[in-house]
Amino acid sequence: MSINKTQDEIIDEFSDIEDWMDRYAYIIDLGNALPPIDETYKTPAHLIEGCQSRVWLNAEMDGDTITYTADSDAIIVKGIISLLIKVLSGHTPDEILNTELYFIDRIGLSEHLSPTRSNGLVAMVKQMRMYALAFKTRQDAGL
């Protein structure tokens, strides 16, 4: 499924939930459903800089696509990273680097997060794109 189709599905899911407390509860449920990250990746090297809470992110190439795994010690943040994984995981580095993540604004997430959580969201997206750029550089170099 394309990145934009996944984003549109998320927008549809959230459009059915009007109250922001219910949206937060849904985001928490998504985080609780996130498959656990392998404990070997819960290291300082996998921590995302710029997040108030601790967020561990790992990325691996699976054929031509990237598979992300993550965890967080904050339940809302874990839900947010699960949304990002749902949208970006399973796509090529080029697809990830060339996409606009419009679902974040369309579901109202950026306007309903505290400034520190918004900074963390930006840091999570940045780190996911950095992994994609690193994998693309390796592909382009034939490694």
Provide structural commentary:
- There is one protein chain.
- The protein is mostly helical and 143 residues long.
- It has a single domain (3-140), classed as Sufe protein. Chain: A.
- It is built from six helices and two strands, in the order H-H-E-E-H-H-H-H.
- A hairpin with a 2-residue loop joins strand 1 and strand 2.
- It is globular, with a radius of gyration of 15 Å.
- It starts with a helix and ends with a helix.
- The percentage of residues in β strands lies in 5-15%
CATH T-level fold name: Sufe protein. Chain: A
Radius of gyration: 15 Å
CA-to-CA gap between the ends? 27 Å
Mean pLDDT: 94
Q: Main beta sheet: strand number and arrangement?
A: 2 strands, antiparallel
Taking pLDDT < 50 over at least 5 consecutive residues as the criterion, the unreliable ranges are none
Q: What percent of residues adopt helix (DSSP H or I)?
A: 40-55%
**CATH-scheme architecture:** Alpha-Beta Complex
Tally the beta strands. Answer: 2
Number of domains: 1
What is the H/E string? HHEEHHHH
Total helical elements: 6
Q: Specify the CATH class.
A: Alpha Beta
Key words describing this protein structure:
143 residues, mainly alpha, Sufe protein. Chain: A, 6 helices, 2 strands
How is this fold's topology laid out?
Layout: H1 3-15, H2 20-33, E1 55-62, E2 65-72, H3 75-88, H4 93-97, H5 103-106, H6 115-140
Antiparallel strand pairs: 1-2
Helix pairs in contact: 1-3, 2-3, 3-6
